[in-house]
Amino acid sequence: MFAFGVCIGNDPKYERCARPGLERTVLPGDLVVELRHQFSIHAAYNKVLEAARDLSGLQAVVLLHEDLEIADDRFRDKVALAFEDPEVGVLGAVGAVNVTSLAWWEGSLRGALAESRLRVEGDRPKGEVETVDGSLLCLSPWVARNLRFDETYAGFHGYDADLCFSARAAGKKVLVEELKLFHHTKGGYGDLVSFARNDELFRRKWIPAERHRG
Q1: Residue 195: count of CB within 10 angstroms of its CB
Q2: What is the pLDDT of residues 29-75, one digit of tens each?
Q3: Which architecture, in CATH terms, is 2-213?
Q4: What's the Cα-to-Cα distance from 136 to each of 165, 195, 197, 211, rounded to whole Å?
Q5: What's the rounded Cα separation, in Å, for the pair 120 and 183?
Q6: What is the pLDDT of residues 96-129, one digit of tens each?
Q7: pTM over 0.90
Q8: Helix runs in the chain, H state only
């Protein structure tokens, strides 16, 4: 079984964007957690992990934005196959290596994601990365049961990169896979003050000083 979690701030957007993809993907017996009126995506997603951790037969936890549409008929098969490898902890559609800040897209991109603004695409369609984009995070059962989002961060930035770095520190791989998705996004940072604060926390926690300077 799969567990799905969505942090919803705009119900019409959720109904228009994410829900149709979920209706195509969710099967009877799956868990779907819809969280509204949240002040921290880190805390919200931890609620999903707590709800999913003891589920029997759990294959994956899928966390997605309210504006992310799953359009891949083989989505479940691809995710389940990836997590048959116990070394894989996190799966996404697009990510990067050589990450030096929360602006992970400034690193070397891998994978691809279609967006309403443009198509984000790296030099390789799949493979190992340091972090994936948080519009879609697929977590292995091991990650769901053993790791948590760091609630030291406030608001809605940094949850993806921090969890991916935590998974890698625990010896798990972070991968991008060819997944047919569509991100109905307007782009932008949102709260710039929150982004800057969380970026500073992330760099202090994970990025060696010499690498950040380089």
Answers
A1: 18
A2: 999 999 999 999 999 999 999 999 999 999 999 999 999 999 999 99
A3: Alpha-Beta Complex (3.90)
A4: 16, 19, 23, 27
A5: 10
A6: 999 999 999 999 999 999 998 888 999 999 999 9
A7: yes
A8: 11-16, 18-25, 41-52, 75-82, 141-146, 159-169, 192-206, 209-213
Residue that the structure tokens 């995070």 belong to:
137
Pairing of strands 88-92, 173-176: parallel
Evaluate whether 97 touches 106 at the Cβ level (below 8 Å): no
* DSSP helix/strand/coil, 65: strand
Contact by Cβ (8 Å): 206, 174: no
Domain ranges of the chain: 2-213
Helix (H) or strand (E) holding 120: strand 119-121
β 119-121/60-65 pair status:
unpaired
> How many CB atoms neighbour CB 181 within 10 A?
22
